[in-house]
Amino acid sequence: MLPKPLHRFQALAAAGDRSMTYISAFKCLGGVVMSADTEENWQDQKNYVEKLTIVEGRAFPLAIGGAGIADLIEPMIQEVTERAAEVKPATTKELIALLKKAINTVYRDDLPWLAVKKQERTAEFLIAAKTEDFCLFRIKGRRLYPVKDMAIIGYATPLNAALLKRMYRDNLPMQQAVMLAIYLVSLSKKLDEGVGGETSIAVIRDNGAFFDYPPYISASEKRIEEFLKLTDELFLSSVDVGIAPSVFPATLEKFANEVAALRQKYMDQTAAISFSRLFSDRSYGGEPYPKVFQGALAAIGVNGITVREETPEERELNQKMLEAARNGNNRIATSEFNAMIADKRIEYLGKEQVQVRGTSGPVVSGEASATSLG
After folding, report:
1. Residue 54: closest CA among 244, 250, 288
2. What's the whole-model pTM score?
């Protein structure tokens, strides 16, 4: 018999089952963020498996993730996503009815044919969707439970649950929610046996469900580690009253400078990643949520991409140019445009290769267009 303190999912791992999973979901401003690891363990084997599924093609804003035996998870996910894409429930009441029908179908038609032990038949699922409002549900066995704000399935250890509860706010902007989701998965990969692989993020917005871009997630994981080193050091210095009051402002100034430099580094990298998608992915239609501040200007130079704010003078000039163009005064619009680029050097690329730095390698394309980063 296994020792009592051993976690339920650790017990399954000890028995050689492939049930190690971390999936979380929580609401934020403008949607819901879901996150999961992508490692499947089977005895000594480790495989990549996508544990989150979305309704494709923006047919309906819904994402679902499952923890447990794959032979039970797969039919449930298929049943829910196919029904949602077809029915497109307009209200939470209709979505609940849809989920209950899916549960009944899977347990009636699929479960009796599965050659699995009885204790392995209690799979868990998290479902995030947008009906008249954003909503969350958890399925355990044949039971459906509404979730108010946040939930974890799989490795819902006291530590993981406490960290989510401490850091979560119901008014988190979506980018902060995504960063929190990435951090939680990263922590679980470090602490929980069998949780690993790449981090997967799905976001649910008014107009559909989307997977976040893997290179952006990978870069964000590194970003979080670097920021935590700075904030951890500041925390210890802040509570250290052995530091004289006359000395402490220097600590704050050092922290402010290092954080500002790190923010600039990752703003530039985030912009480079978005531009790389623009030049390499014909299906790219923009980010599902703003990843840099609204109105950001991105300049491409010999050192890569640099992001900055628009100056008041540039904003006034742009407004004059746009107003002149709207009024059909091409002469004034051209004059304002020439003034805007007076100190700039235009380099003609033609059909030459366009290279975007800040990614895993240069992205080459013969076509270029513009994108909004904010």
Report:
1. 288
2. 0.79
